[in-house]
Amino acid sequence: MKVSFQDLPAAIANAARRQPISLIGFDVFDTLLRRRVEPETVKDIVARRLVRLLTDLPPHAPLRSWGMPDWRLLREKRRLLEIEMGHTAEIRGQDHEFRLREMMLEWVRRCARPLVPQEIVQSFADQLVEHELRCERAATTPTPGIVHSLETARAASKRVIFVSDSYLSIGDIRTLLGSSGLLDFLDGGYVSSEVMLTKRSGRLFERVLVEEGVSPASVLFIGDNAHSDVSSPASRGIRTIHIADKPEAARRARLQLLDSLSRQNTFWIGRHAREVVEALPTALARTDEDAQSPHYRLGELLAPGFLAFTLHILEKSQELGLRRLYFLSREGLTFLRMYRRIVRALGVQHIAPQAEYAVVSRASTFLASSDSFDIPGLQRIWAQYHGQSLSRIIRNFNLPLEELTPLALAAGFDDLDRPIRNLDGEPALTRFFADPAVQGIFIRERNQARELFTQYMRDRGWFDGDGSPSDTVGVIDIGWKGSIQNNMYRALAHTPGSPAIVGFYFGLTHHHADTDPRNAKIGFMADTRSADWVSECIFKNGSVFEMFSTAMHGGAAGYTRAPNGMVKATIRIDASEQRNFTTHFADVRRGIEDYTTDFLSVLPLIDCSSMEMRPDFLDTLRRYILYPRRAEAKAFLEYTHVENFGIFQVTNYRWNGSWRKILKGNPRALPHRLLHELRHQIWPEAICKRSRVPFANLAYDLIDTRRAAKYVP
Questions:
Q1: Which of 286, 420, 445, 461 has its Cα between 20 and 30 A from that of 266?
Q2: Mean pLDDT of the region 521-541
């Protein structure tokens, strides 16, 4: 009898009505428990862990090809050893079976260098057994609806047991069933490795009949394997139910295809990793209101890229030997929390760099990093935010406006809010900067800001290193130019013992002026130094990554000294930000959090580096940015973004173009004017999608690609 999992309870009840049942047995894997990965994938992961043990690499460190054994060769040694041990058992009159712990000890012995002490071999074998069991716990989850089937079975028979062909011990199987909440529904169980008899041969079923003291006709066995779970017990007179579930078969086929593709082409590694996380979710919403929300779905879409970036931070910081990591506010708080959870999930707390949260911003560090208050010193802001008024310049430098206003009026400014179009063509500005009183105020405020900021970072271990040239710390931010890192370096480099800095960025727009080796930067998802136009698509809508990694507290406005002598950051938050955090931003963050929970639960199964996952994750983000769905494009209209340095405004993502500029002029140049206006919008691809013009996104992408191709070498 073939049934689906959905129809299994009814099939059990019907079987009990036709003939009394004394014992019902269930297969374990792919019946009671579903697998997130294939069994052979777990063995591959353990082989890679053995390489790390033999070469003294941290867990989850990317494997390098030079000077270390190929994990595939070790994996093949295990396969051959399993066959050998099975044949040895057959010679002894048992079935083709072996035990995990015996196999693991012999495998390590054969893979280790000659003359390695036995205690080291035993330690490695124990660690590998524990890691394989950990992977099995992560890989298995209760089959949806199986509890109802078990309850029906208990009502229909005297005893309900499990019977499994496995090299795991019965204790290991009990642990898996217990962690899945199924052990309480079972009265006992049998595992082939305990008695060295298998379901495949039918001898394990014979043992079950003897041990349980029942006749074959009073037994019902349920499983998914046509031979081991159906033909073999049926040949002993046992009634059977064959599980043949089409949706599950389709999921398994998809998983196997992705596993095969990932072995042939590294692009598919990330897609396979996402399948492991998403196919059998426990936290991610699938049927409720969240599952239909474009805001929640956006969080689910962003989370893989954020998690891969965080893994990249861990991998590179270990590789570079960084002393400490500083996650910069406010975007860094999201990655700090992910980092700490990943470190705990991997069990590498003792070797991972210590992580700190640094409440800093461009506004809170700009004055401390400034060497001068003049036109050259102003260029750092002006290059990005030109046309500012003097009052805004003073505000960006975090200087006291009430003290500088009389001096500005004396220099010839009649309106401090008037935009300055040309720095060199503003005599009043030159006189203002030349005033000794102005410079005195600047030096006083700058020195105080630098002192407070230096103490703030000292309290967080910035100067705890040995002061050697190799003393290096990492800073982490979403992107894009690394200006906060530059400010920190400029402000703190004056202090003896300040370490070198390596900045980690989700996306980095690198400046040619950034050449100081003690102030290095690395872009993960995109780095303009790589000249990879495909990856640079994320800069087309960098706001989406920035908004939804931003912490829900306000931004740092400066620093003050508390009565106890500690320096604390002063926080400022805009009212529109508070509204954001309590509405749709919360839905996006819930999607990120749920995805992170599921990701961490299967992290032992995602045994690949961040750079291996990156291509697929980047491709997913490219689809969202270049070809958003209508619901995604429309949802973005409900977000706002606050700028509080350089410019002080709340940005929305509606169409802000001028139809008058587009329509006015030569009709032949109208397409050119439309493109020009469109390119100056925030996320023009979403505007194209909301326009409902057929193939608008395809046309815009084609034009943009042709334009970019002119600059590709």
A1: 286
A2: 90
